[in-house]
Amino acid sequence: MGGIKDIKLLGREHTYLMRFSPASKIYSINQATANTLSVIPRYILEAIGFGGIVLLALALMAQSDNFGDALPLLGLYAFAGYKLLPAAQQIYTSLTKVRFGGAAVDDVYEDLHTRDTLVEIQKVAVKPLLVNHSISFQNLSFFYENAEKPALKNLNFDIKKGSSIGLVGSTGAGKTTLVDLILGLLEPSEGEFKVDHAIIDEKNTRQWQKSLGYVPQDIYLVDASISENIALGIPVEKIDQSQVEKCAELAQVHDFILEELAHGYQTQVGERGVRLSGGQRQRIGIARALYHDPEVLVFDEATSALDNVTEKAVIEAVNILSHKKTIIMIAHRLSTVKNCDQIIYLEQGEIIDSGNYQELIERNPKFRNMAI
Ligand SMILES: Nc1ncnc2c1ncn2[C@@H]1O[C@H](COP(=O)(O)OP(=O)(O)OP(=O)(O)O)[C@@H](O)[C@H]1O
Ligand SMILES: [Mg+2]
C-alpha cells in the first residue's frame, strides 16, 4: 500500500494482485470448507436419528403382535431425538469454529507471549539514563553483516552535554549508521559507545533510549488527530495538551495548526498523514520528538524535505534549544549545521576532519566544496 502511487503509475497492479491471489484463494477455500463441514453432520445426524426410529419401529412391529403398546415408547424416542439433534448440531458447529479459529489465535498468542521482549518492555518502567558530562565513542567500528567494508572505522570523539554537533559527509559515508548506533538500534562491532562512564549495551539500551528524541527523515504519522500524533503512543485522556502546544510552537507548526486546519489540534491527519504536506509532517515529527522533553535530540536529515524558508525557521527553533539540550544532526545542506558547536566530517566510515564551521571552511578544501 505504501507504494501505491508508483504501482498505479507504472500500471503494475496486476503483478501485485497475482501475488495476493494464491493466499486469498486458499483462504476462501478453507472458509468454504469450514462452513460446509459445520452443517453437513446435521443431515447425517438427522438421517441416523430418524432412520434409527424407523428401524426401531420395524423391530418393535416384528416383535410384538400388538404394535399399539410400543407407540408411547416410540413417541418418546422420536421426541427426544427431535429435541437433542439441534443441540448436538450446535455443539458440533461450535467445535468446528473453535478448531478453525484456533490456528490464528495460536499464531497471535505466540507473537505476543513467547517473544519475550514485547512482554518485558511493557512490564518494566525504566528511568532515563541522563548525561552528566559527555557521550563518547572509543575505537568504535561497525560492520554490517555480509558487508565487505566496515561502515564505520575506528571512530574516536566526544559529544559534550548541551553541545550541538553536525554530522556531514557524502552519501554512504556512514552517517545514518552512526545515528542508529547512538539510538541503540545497532550495537558496535568493535570499540565502545559510552554515556559518561557507562557502556551502552543491551542492559541499559532501554534507559538510554528514554532520554533520546529522534526525528527521522520520513515521519510516520498515524491516522489520528494532530495532538495524538505529537504525543504518539499516549492514551488520549493522558495527553498533556499544553505540552503538545508548547512543542508545536517550538517546531514552528503551531500557527499552521490553528489557522489552517479546520479542527485545530483535533484535525484528523489521514492514513500516514496524507492530508499534510511533507514539510508539515516533518515539523509534527519534530514536535513529537520534543514532547517527552528528551535530553538528547537526534535529527537524521530531518530538514531536508523543507523549503529554505521553513528550514530556516525550524533551524532557528533548534538553535533556541541548543545549549539546553544535546543535539546531534545529520544534514545534507551545510546551512543546517552552520551553528553547531562541532561538525564531524565523515567519509567512507572514517572521520576525516572535525571542528566548527569556520575552521572547516578555512582548512578543508573538500568541506569548502560542499559549502558552495
Ligand atoms: N543494512 C545494511 N546492510 C549492509 N550495508 C549497509 C546497510 N545499511 C547501510 N549499509 C552500507 O553502509 C554504508 C554507510 O551507510 P549509511 O546509510 O550509514 O550512509 P549515509 O552516510 O547515511 O548515506 P546517505 O547520506 O545516503 O543517507 C554504505 O556503504 C551502505 O552501503
Ligand atoms: Mg543516511
From TrEMBL:
InterPro entries: AAA+_ATPase, ABC1_TM_sf, ABC_transporter-like_ATP-bd, ABC_transporter-like_CS, P-loop_NTPase, Type_1_exporter. The lineage of its organism: Bacteria, Pseudomonadati, Pseudomonadota, Gammaproteobacteria, Thiotrichales. The chain crosses the membrane at residues 43-62. Keywords: ATP-binding, Cell membrane, Membrane, Nucleotide-binding, Transmembrane, Transmembrane helix, Transport. Residues 135-372 form the ABC transporter domain. GO terms for molecular function: ATP binding; ATP hydrolysis activity; ATPase-coupled lipid transmembrane transporter activity. PANTHER family: ATP-BINDING CASSETTE SUB-FAMILY B, ATP-BINDING CASSETTE SUB-FAMILY B MEMBER 6. It is a multi-pass membrane protein. It comes from Methylophaga muralis. PROSITE patterns: ABC_TRANSPORTER_1 (PS00211), ABC_TRANSPORTER_2 (PS50893). SMART domains: AAA. Pfam families: ABC_tran. One of its GO terms (cellular component) is plasma membrane. The gene is hepA. It comes from the Bacteria. This is Heterocyst differentiation ATP-binding protein HepA. It is found in: Cell membrane.
